[in-house]
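Chapter review: from sequence to fold.
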Amino acid sequence: MAAAAAADAGAHPRRPVHLLRCEAVELRGASAPGAVTVESWVVRRTGATVTMAVLATAAQPGGGARIAGSGRFTFTRYTAETKEQPA
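The token string follows.
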């Protein structure tokens, strides 16, 4: 889920993102083998960080879908201003 969120958060190839923190994650698992669909949304964006909410759903054997996991991740975009300064 974090990788899917990172791909969406770092849509600009010249400004890669790095995971800063995982604020919440819950994995429930899928009830049947098969594909899991992962969706992510921007919750908050600042100059240096992007917080993404992620939802994973899995198909159920009898039809429909159920939540397989959810999470909230914050990524940082390293720029000249946010790189570590020498101590």
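Two observations follow directly from the output. The mean pLDDT is 78. The first helix runs from residue 2 to 9.
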